[in-house]
Design brief:
Oligomer: heterodimer
Radius of gyration of chain B: 20 Å
Shape of chain A: globular
Distance between the termini of chain A: 48 Å
Largest interface: A-B, 46 and 37 residues
Radius of gyration of chain A: 22 Å
Helix content of chain B: 10-25%
CATH topology of chain B: outer membrane lipoprotein receptor (LolB), chain A
Largest sheet of chain B: 13 strands, antiparallel
Strand content of chain B: over 45%
CATH architecture of chain A: Beta Barrel
CATH class of chain B: Mainly Beta
Strand content of chain A: over 45%
Chain lengths: ~425, ~260
């Protein structure tokens, strides 16, 4: 089981590289004889200040500095019915060599006609409706070293077919090539107490990363309801962990990716100033047995709060996982309560503050996210996360000492 | 035939009374009649595409811009479907808003956030809120359906040398930000030229001036510029419409969540 799967993976990595290279060539080619390329993107500088000393002396103290660049190059033709999008990503990190990383977020060919659309290449797909926890969202792997909220995703190789019918919106995904979850390195903060050794990742599938995954999703809007049903079969995106040793005989966690089946339902009921949200999954194949998990709640907005143009929203969501204390996620018996303030001003000033409490063990996470446009090209964002009263039984115990404040300055071009 | 003659006489008398409108009609009937005629003249365009540029100016004269493109599909028995894609400011490039407006009740709205590739159904009661931080509220830019207001004809008026109808209209929706609006419509083509907006306290809030009307497909009039002045804050927004393209070949499938996700 401890055999590194690298030799098996190499051909696939080569294949993906060829795919990347091929599409890139296509872009270069097309740019020579069709309309001008549309080039845009962003460069962001991120400063983080960690308020406490780390749990492990290998982890860095104090501040961190990081710079990320994400250009987007788009070539359209056939009156917009055909398109190639290329969106590479690069981050440099002062402290964590693992966080210095490259990804291709998107590199796909898209064509659509009357009631159909196909995409081929690397792309990102989001499913779901809730705010605190994204249970049903499964197509893309999480780029976990980007942000502990798990909302950053790696580009996923796919062939996607979407059909709009009276019966609803049907989407079929064929997903060749698995992307491994990223984890902070030894020196990084916001990691498990034992670092994760991704080089030894193990798979339930005999063909490892080459296993081809499938997904099917049906969704429909019926007046005030938006409903989605989906099924996924393939390598699960969130691994289990096994204890092991790295090549220097130091203890590490080794990710183990199971073959899972996951059936999901998501629904939102939008009425007046109320949004009611619900997501539920049933998963088989994960180590530790089959399970249900559910999250849901509401967002209530007061328009014109404070007499003028501000909006104030209150959010509340519950998260439950049938595995209880055996959950691999911290969100097994949790309540999220949040406040969203939208100034509706010229600078699009907004703030989202929330607290997640585990009602069984009392662990609390506090999040604050705020942003404001400085001018047409610049934007500033502030993020603060803290963990309080964390139970030793809660997975959050790993990052209990990693409370931080982040300021990010982004230049768009 | 005596019966036909009677019918004819009745019709004639109705006609004459109508011609003497002030006596035959209440101001409410007259106002509604003008609104219905304006709507009738703008019906049947099917679909169009256009570019919108906004220049927002605050009380200190500082400017910021909003650039977007819009697709509109007319609905036979309901409000229009609209897709708006943002180009500027740059941080919202690729953000798109899909609206199914309804003659009665709340509109349906979905917002596409390109960074997350997420479509969010949003609470559309927020119609009185500012559109992209501008002086236009969502309801000012929404599809103008006859059923959304009650009307009252005030008087004939003259504006910029043109003969106008001045009518007052009261929003039906209790979530509207306005108590009433004064609307100047020209008597020749039934085009709006000025709207005064009165807030819930019945104080004058904003004035919208239309200018640079062009006719498309030999029938449909569209203003090239709409200037909104907020009297209470001193802020203003100039909305410039460009590149109108009627009968652009848009259909129902261009106004779906899939189309929202690929909009750019």
């Amino acid at each position: 089981m401890l055999n590194p799967a690298v030799p098996v993976l190499q051909p696939l990595m080569n294949m993906i590289s060829i795919l990347h290279y091929g599409l890139f060539l296509l872009i270069v080619l097309l740019s020579n004889y069709t309309q001008a390329l549309d080039i845009s993107g962003s460069i962001s500088t991120e400063g983080r200040l960690f308020l406490n000393s780390p749990q492990n002396p290998n982890q860095h103290e104090g501040h961190n500095l990081s710079i990320a660049i994400e250009p987007e190059i788009v070539q359209e033709w056939d009156d917009g019915h055909q398109r190639i999008t290329f969106k590479p990503f690069y981050r440099w990190d002062l402290r964590d060599t693992k966080r210095t990383h490259t990804d291709i977020r998107e590199l796909f060919y898209m064509q659509y006609g009357d009631g159909w659309e196909i995409r081929f290449g690397l792309d990102k797909v989001f499913w779901g409706v809730t705010e605190a926890l994204h249970l049903v969202d499964i197509i893309n792997q999480t780029d976990m070293i980007e942000n502990p909220d798990g909302e950053d995703k790696l580009g996923q190789p796919m062939l996607k077919l979407a059909l709009e019918r009276d019966s609803g919106n049907w989407q079929l995904f064929i997903l060749p090539g698995f992307r491994e979850r990223t984890f902070p390195g030894r020196a990084g903060r916001l990691r498990t107490l034992l670092p994760v050794d991704t080089s030894q990742a193990q798979y339930a599938a005999a063909n490892g990363k080459q296993h081809v995954d499938f997904a099917l999703r049906w969704s429909k809007t019926i007046e005030e309801w938006d409903v989605g049903l989906a099924h996924f079969h393939g390598t699960g995106r969130d691994p289990s962990f096994r204890l092991g040793l790295n090549k220097n005989a130091q203890p590490v966690l080794i990710p183990y990716y199971e073959i899972i089946d996951q059936t999901s339902l998501d629904a939102q009921y939008s009425h007046g100033n109320w949004l009611w949200k619900f997501e539920s999954i049933y998963r088989t194949g994960q180590t530790g047995g089959n399970y249900f998990a559910t999250t849901g709640g509401f967002e209530r907005t007061w328009v014109g709060f404070r007499g003028h143009s501000d909006d104030l929203g209150i959010l509340a969501e519950l998260a439950w996982d049938q595995r209880g204390r055996r959950s691999t996620t911290p969100f097994n018996n949790d309540l999220f309560i949040g406040v969203r303030w939208t100034a509706n001003d010229t600078q699009s000033t907004e703030l989202l503050a929330g607290m997640i409490t585990d009602w069984k063990n009392g662990s609390k996470s506090i999040n604050l996210e705020a942003s404001r446009r400085l001018n047409n090209d610049w934007k500033i964002s502030i993020q603060a996360r803290g963990w309080f009263n964390i139970s030793k039984q809660d997975p959050l115990t790993n990052i209990d000492q990693d409370d931080y404040v982040e300021i990010e300055l982004t230049r768009y071009y | 035939m005596p019966q036909s003659l009677t019918t004819l006489l009745i019709l004639l008398s109705l006609c004459c009374l109508n011609g003497n409108g002030a006596i035959a009609q209440t101001p409410e009937q007259r106002g509604l009649e003008i609104a219905i005629e304006a709507d009738r003249r703008d019906t049947g365009f099917h679909d169009f595409k256009a570019e919108m540029n906004m220049i927002l100016r605050n009380a200190h004269g500082e400017e910021s811009v909003r650039d977007m493109r819009t697709n509109v599909l007319e609905q036979a028995n309901d409000g229009d479907k609209t897709l708006i894609v943002f180009d500027q400011p740059r941080d919202v490039k690729g953000t798109a808003l899909l609206t199914f407006s309804h003659k009665r009740g709340s509109d349906d709205q979905w917002l596409y956030l390109p960074a997350l590739k997420r479509v969010k159904r949003i609470a559309s009661k927020n119609k009185s809120g500012p559109f992209m931080g501008s002086e236009f509220a969502y309801e000012d830019l929404a599809s103008q359906e006859v059923e959304k207001y009650t009307y009252r004809y005030i008087q004939d008026d003259v504006l910029n040398g043109q003969k106008m109808f001045l009518i007052q209209r009261d929003p039906v929706d209790p979530n509207s930000g306005y108590s009433y609006q004064n609307l100047w419509i020209d008597q020749q083509h039934y085009r709006p030229w000025r709207i005064e907006y009165f807030d819930r306290k019945r104080t004058k809030l904003k004035t919208l001036e239309f200018s640079g009307y062009n006719q498309y497909l030999g029938q449909y009039w569209r203003a090239a510029q709409m200037f909104m002045q907020n009297h209470q804050t001193g802020k203003s927004t100039l909305l410039i419409w460009k590149e109108y393209h009627f009968h652009a070949g848009l259909g129902e499938n261009d106004f779906t969540q899939n189309s929202l996700k690929r909009a750019r």
